Amino acid sequence: MAYILGVDIGTSGTKTVLFSEDGTPVSSATYEYPLYTPQNGYAEQEPLDWWNASVNGIKDVISQSSVAAEEIKGIGLSGQMHGLVMLDADNKPIRRSIIWCDQRTAREVVEITDKVGADRLIEITANPAITGFTAAKIMWVKNNEPQNYEKCRHILLPKDYIRFMLTGEFATEVSDASGMQLLDIPNRCWSDEVLSKLGIDKALLAKVYESPEITGTVTKQVAELTGLKEGTPVVGGAGDNAAAAVGTGVVEDGKAFTTIGSSGVVFAHTSDIAIDKQGRVHTFCCAVPNCWHVMGVTQSAGLSLKWFRDNFAWAEMETAVSMGVDPYYLMDKEADSVPIGANRLLYLPYLNGERTPHLDPNARGVFFGLSSMHKKKDMLRAVMEGVSYSLRDCVEVMREMKINVSDMMACGGGGTSKLWRQMLADLYACPVKTTENKEGPALGAALLAAVGAGIYKSVPEACSVVIKPEKVQEPIHENIGEYERVYQMYRRLYPAMKKSFEQLAQL
């Protein structure tokens, strides 16, 4: 039996999981670390915190198992995307990493758009300039910390810093590099045109690989530090969403997944590149060689339900403690007692602005149609439906782009709710499934390592062996038409309020 290691460098912590070759988790460990916010809108982390968490996690999963180091045939890395790691001539971090959720780069977004051109930027990088992407962060350091930029010799993404520490190699792979806004997405290589127009030296960037390719091997020093065998291959791996796609089997045309975490993501695989000229969805290279994925994002998905719980569901939280259940379980029961349409109450889930299909930081949450007849449970149902409508918006953009979305997986905290999965199945008019294995990105990274190590011939083959559906929610035919009527009303609300959102932001 061969074994594979998946290391997922997340925002709150790093999760390391040791799997057998059939995808069964053998042992796992998670180490958390802080997030620094030196100013409003800033978000930074220490790269060495990620490294220490990775080392400790690897040591733990090996010591907790009876697996010998030589039986571990490969390591795959997954990680938070878009973070900027800058190393000096001694390969030491120059400053804290500016991570994905940092919002300091509004001026740099304008600068990038002006220098490259809005349409040309989408043609090359498949996305409009966005504050969270790495290119804007590089330009911010260049503009505001010239002394640090001058010291910089290498630019890496978070998981690729861990790769460097494991192997001594400067490497990245196409899925994570896609989120830097420096990659030529159609051609899967760095864009000389974008780099030239932004004045960024290509020599600062790492070599680009496909996700299952071997990028280096574990050094002797790291082997002594962790208990791994020297020479263990480390593959390219993937950004967190691309790794989650592999971990849920979304690696062929027609397959997609919906994640309801704090934000909501609809992610669809495609063999043919498709770019939305309006920039409403992201197109990135995916973890399957020579394929792409399209991703829509709604900012406040699970966050909307958490906001409602924290502010209005105190009774449910108290009752849940006495019953020994999750408050969301009780909230599901209440929402399920309300008919589709929440008795003519609609909710726009724009608590913190929106991305897909309305790239609008000024948009805000709305209850529309509130009357004296409505109770808390109606509002609760409206929140869950509003999030589902926003995710349907993402699917509609993909269908407009001729992307087949007919086989949907559900993951994230919201994916555990049978009611929410049924809403999605009815709104998408297709089955919504969950998988037996819940490890997501760590499993996806490990399967990429299994392909690189030769255990499986391809990513789709690995997924066909390992990924098995657990629960399937079929759409209920009579519900589809009822939701459609409410959804069409929902779609009319944002355009009617757009100018009012702008004016509200100026108050």
Brief account:
The protein is α+β, with helices and mostly antiparallel strands. It is 41% helix and 21% strand.
In words, what does this structure look like?
α10 (240-247) packs across α16, α11 packs across α12 (314-323) and α13 (327-336) packs across α14. A hairpin with a 3-residue loop joins β1 (3-9) and β2. The mean pLDDT is 96. The radius of gyration is 23 Å and the shape is globular. The strands form eight sheets. A seven-stranded mixed beta sheet has the order 18-19-17-16-22-23-24. It has a five-stranded mixed beta sheet with strand order 3-2-1-5-15, sandwiched between helices. It has a two-stranded antiparallel ribbon with strand order 4-7. Helix content is 41%, strand content 21%. It is built from 18 helices and 24 strands. The chain is α+β, with helices and mostly antiparallel strands.
Report the β-strand fraction as a percent range: 15-25%
Using the alpha-carbon principal axes, give the shape: globular
Structural class label: alpha+beta
Radius of gyration: 23 Å
Please mark out the parts with pLDDT under 50 across 5 or more consecutive residues, or reply none.
none
